[in-house]
Design a protein that fits this description.
heterodimer; A: 398 residues; alpha/beta; eleven-stranded mixed sheet; nine-stranded mixed sheet; 22 strands; globular; B: 247 residues; six-stranded mixed sheet; four-stranded antiparallel sheet
Amino acid sequence: MMKLTDLQNKLQNEFQIAESKSELVEKFLDLGLPNKKSEAYRYANMDKLFDQEFETLEYNAKELAYSDKILIVNGEVISMPKGIRVYYANTDEQNINLEHYDPLYFLGHLLSKKSIIIEIDGDSEVDILHRITKASTLIHYRIVIKTQVNKHASIYEHFEFDNAHESLLLYGYDVDVQKDSTLTFVKNQHSDEDAPTIIASHDIKVEKQASLTLQSFDFGNAPALQLFNIVLEEHAHVDMGQLLYLWGNVKRGTISKIIHRGESSHSVQEAKNILEGSARGIFDAIIKVEHSAKYTKTQQNSKTILLGEATYMVAKPQLEIYIDELEASHGSTIGQLDIEQLFYLRSRGITEVEARKLLIVAFANKLIGTIRDKRQEELINQNFEKAFYAQNQKTNLL
Amino acid sequence: MLTIKNLHANIGDNKILQGLDLTLEAGKVHVIMGPNGAGKSTLSKAIVGHYDVEVTEGSIDYKGKDIVKLPAEERALEGIFMSFQNPTEIPGVNNAYFLRTALNAKLKHEGKEELNAAEFLRVMREKLSSLEMKTDMLSRSLNEGFSGGEKKRNEILQMLILKPDVIILDEIDSGLDIDALKAVAEGINSMQDGKRTFLVITHYRRLLDYLTPDYIHVLKNGKILKTAGVELVDKLEEEGYDWIKAE
């Protein structure tokens, strides 16, 4: 059994007497487990999680089978497709970004002595399925994605949960999008009562003239946070789209920091949030433009529809700018479904539930409609339908 | 077909309809005229169940029951249709998908088989052509960026495919050029089958030149104050509404 607060205390004691000090441990201890005063987690109070007792698992690398996807079950890689290299390697402290703002990024690395390395050769598409089947368990792993210069890769991330309640999934990606390459990353996550709390803390570097498209589709009533630290080099581009569709009494969302380091780098971040029941959404996003990032272009926007009286959205798009030569804009809107539009549809014989669905789909489609892969779009639409009817059947609108 | 008795209706704190009586006969074209603020649009909204309108007294009997408390979608499925004065724009909702959803809801309500995409498109092509509408109207978002004429034609298109029994046209002629007015009027006339009832709300006679109204009703101060034949239009055009008092 393990409690994360106990682990922190143990690391503290060991660090004080250690002869050679690990920078990773030092960084984690500096930031400490998140609490209400933590900058990154100020809207995502998770104190109770760190006092919870978790079962722990031993991770043993096994021989991998071949399948059509990379399958990771409770933190262990089970299978992989042909043409993709997947292996474990010791976590190299030199490859850890000590400038990351998230203490749980460092904790994830501390807990995971070995990282799962995924090497994508050439132009490829890869599906990654995370399957969690343990209750009250701490499951942790780090994944390193290695792409090639001047190639295009697509990663489609999926999740399956079975009896994984009261567990904590602490994972994340370390990605270096190579020079002149493009990477498309699409996350499709539906997590409900059977799901663990998920904290996904990522560190991404987009090299010169590389391009990253990052789309996340989050549905559910289980708590989850995704945290991004993204650094853009010269002429690098990131296009982030985040759809959050929550219901029930849940707190969930995105915390992100995009750092423009290179000249003429470009970022677009668009969040769409749909909240039902008494759900609380978080969009706490900073775009930082450093002195070295002249001619940056950046846009950041968050739009929210509140569908329940007890819903609440923290939308904090923020710009931190140190230069004059740039184009930057950001904004946030929060509203409800347009009653006139709803009436128009109903006046044509469309039920209130279906009219609501049409309007919500219209709102969400600005992001879902941008998925290039039709199979992935269909899978996300299925999760969207599941999310919509999960809530609307409960409220007896059908 | 539809009988309104002693209808009182408010919008917010304003009492708009104040004991309105009106009977719409099957197969007839009824025209409502009246000064601004008389309650013409409120009447049409009350019939279709618009959320703005609170009916405080009276009844609207249709197909043997009082529909005052019926939700808007149920009134629509039972055959009541209103062409909106200013059709709302709904970005992101594809026009064809909306039309097929509405049509299939109606077919399902009538116990008929729903149309698949191919069957639906076949139906639509014929209707679009009769209204001189381009097929790209189907792939656009519902009413988004439509000109005034395109919006009104899209309303008539919905009327043609949904085949309602009671058709309320709220200032369908406003903002239309002559060609659009003709096309809209032809669409309306093509729906006349001796059974359907039309309630046409207008300020001007130009639309009436293309239709064959049976009754002209003057709505003033929240009541129908006068009902007569089409000859009343000329008098109203010449003399306005001041001379009309409660009969």
